[in-house]
Amino acid sequence: xxxxxxxxxxxxxxxxxxxxxxxxxxxxxxxxxxxxxxxxxxxxxxxxxxxxxxxxxxxxxxxxxxxxxxxxxxxxxxxxxxxxxxxxxxxxxxxxxxxxxxxxxxxxxxxxxxxxxxxxxxxxxxxxxxxxxxxxxxxxxxxxxxxxxxxxxxxxxxxxxxxxxxxxxxxxxxxxxxxxxxxxxxxxxxxxxxxxxxxxxxxxxxxxxxxxxxxxxxxxxxxxxxxxxxxxxxxxxxxxxxxxxxxxxxxxxxxxxxxxxxxxxxxxxxxxxxxxxxxxxxxxxxxxxxxxxxxxxxxxxxxxxxxxxxxxxxxxxxxxxxxxxxxxxxxxxxxxxxxxxxxxxxxxxxxxxxxxxxxxxxxxxxxxxxxxxxxxxxxxx
Amino acid sequence: xxxxxxxxxxxxxxxxxxxxxxxxxxxxxxxxxxxxxxxxxxxxxxxxxxxxxxxxxxxxxxxxxxxxxxxxxxxxxxxxxxxxxxxxxxxxxxxxxxxxxxxxxxxxxxxxxxxxxxxxxxxxxxxxxxxxxxxxxxxxxxxxxxxxxxxxxxxxxxxxxxxxxxxxxxxxxxxxxxxxxxxxxxxxxxxxxxxxxxxxxxxxxxxxxxxxxxxxxxxxxxxxxxxxxxxxxxxxxxxxxxxxxxxxxxxxxxxxxxxxxxxxxxxxxxxxxxxxxxxxxxxxxxxxxxxxxxxxxxxxxxxxxxxxxxxxxxxxxxxxxxxxxxxxxxxxxxxxxxxxxxxxxxxxxxxxxxxxxxxxxxxxxxxxxxxxxxxxxxxxxxxxxxxxxxxxxxxxxxxxxxxxxxxxxxxxxxxxxxxxxxxxxxxxxxxxxxxxxxxxxxxxxxxxxxxxxxxxxxxxxxxxxxxxxxxxxxxxxxxxxxxxxxxxxxxxxxxxxxxx
Lengths: 381, 500
What we know:
The structure holds 2 protein chains of 2 kinds. In chain A, helix 1 runs antiparallel to helix 10. The N terminus of chain A is likely disordered. Chain A contains 11 helices and 18 strands. Chain B contains 15 helices and 21 strands. Chain B has an 8-stranded parallel sheet. A 3-stranded mixed sheet of chain B has the order 6-20-21. Chain B has a two-stranded antiparallel ribbon with strand order 1-4. The interface between A and B is large, with 51 and 45 residues.
């Protein structure tokens, strides 16, 4: 019998449901900073979690290996590790492998082995496939076919650290105050239907995309079926995974901008669309007609990050909280304003964005409100 | 020959209440009531009564009661009274048994074995009285992706889309099968509510062209009433291959129903039988269907979605997939319980499969093949209420057609006498004395009310699930659970057992 501490969704519910605290901070000039502040901030929202999951994503983490895919893999057995390492040697050029350093933390019990590998794809991929697609397929293969192994981070110059525990305990276990990056996101989890599995903690990640998420996607069933048509296998049965794949499909595969993607995931109401000027109306209508199955319905706040970008978004009627804080070149996103004020008391500005309005921090650009689709259409003419 | 068929109903007339006004005599189109002038008394011919309740509703003093005749045969599971009497009828007539409406047998109604979900604690339900709740649906082919450049300029032009404010349309019922007043009621209600009605294969009467924007014009095997003007008038063109009540069977409108007006609309001589062949004689294979689809697209200049309607038969999923590949923008599946103005009873009750199963397997098949977005799915055949609609949408339908439910809104009591042409409610007849019983002003109001009621209920269902747009329920089978079904049935429906 499988150990239920070691799999996600042991009861085979429709999906894993959880609520949480989320936090993100970014230095838009690219200055790297330690995890000290974000650990304090997420710990300040301790009661929004229940100790069954915490995690962090860090960008600008491995500048010395910036061109290599950094795979973070957790193992439940040595045998799983041997099997997976043989697979990696066969499918990639392995530049470096090491165990991720940890330190004994009383609250962290029965942790899996966590290793990281810096790899190149080189000639291993077929000529007609991109390196990214190749990596995605191999990650799916390890996670679905190989036993006792789970890849939870697979991007370049970034990494995810997560596990079962409060986020501050996970940070202590991995010694995250020692790491530096220009963009950090964090998550404290309150799952309602799973005893907590290390792989089930947030952030969720594919390539250098990560998602931390507070909410429940009531449209999960159809979002998942839609994504399956494009070859995504939702092995984790969580709505967060669906968000990660939806963003990957829209932005990476369909080449759509974040504004457009936000209008697909949290679109305006039809009545609102019909009040817009004709050209904008047509654009929004076409998007909703085509991508209606990707509308994320139900309460959510997400912080999506990838190389050089951090995006905050709520559902279109804002059923979960999001506060934005700006101080100089620093951009903060948080479930609660108090957590931002704790680490940065004197903010230039703090506000709650409208439902469905994306907040986007971009490397190299001081934060400013994004131009709306309407303004861009006017400019294009 | 003396008939061995016993009376089906008992007509009870309370002599204390009866005022001999003869309303019942005038209302009954089956001659069940007559006035005996000699005795100054109204009497009954109970053998004629079909149980339609027209007289009961119109008797000004409430003097009438219609009850089932208690004459029972000896109990026998195999030889039920219906089986016995069907044999008697055929022994007396030597013909095929005809009937109207849909299959009334006890095959499993899967809607009643499916239960809907609602939000509790972990996500909030949404109150449709206070928050927007969206039912808008667009039918038509959708691309795999949309191109938008960085300046937000749209690079993708969609194939023609048709907007429905409510995902419920009125099913094909031809002029000739139903009366013009019924069609006018349907057309006006569809226009008012923002949905579509369907001409059936009887053409479009000139007085209804003004509702063209809410009209689906049908092209069926008889090609009755089809010309360029007709196709231009409609919002959608529907190729009818088959219907749930009589898969594989053609149609026959008897000459006596082909009045001057019907003759003009169908474009056939007055008084001639209108025979719809069983197949379309230019479609003997899937590539022939593709040719007709593209011929119609050419003829309408690619401005209208082309729909193809088939009866839900054993291989509906595979056939549906072929139809999508052949270029259909909308696939209509009409299930085992789909109704008709007239069909051989043996076909109606024994051919086809339940719509729930056909829908689930078609939606699954199209998704497995990655072509679900290329066509909308519309289902029909026995949809009774908004709960059925919600379940159909959760199984994967884009919209549904209702036929019988719409006729019930107009007065139909499902007495199954459509094929006689004597409908006492004036619905399924061309007898001018009867058709005037449906007043289009009132008919349109009753139909619009029905759809308004269903929309309110659909919004409540959605809100309870914590979702505020219909597209988040569409194909979302996690919002369904099955009760009292086998593993195989659950597997085909793609639905889990209650409690699981």
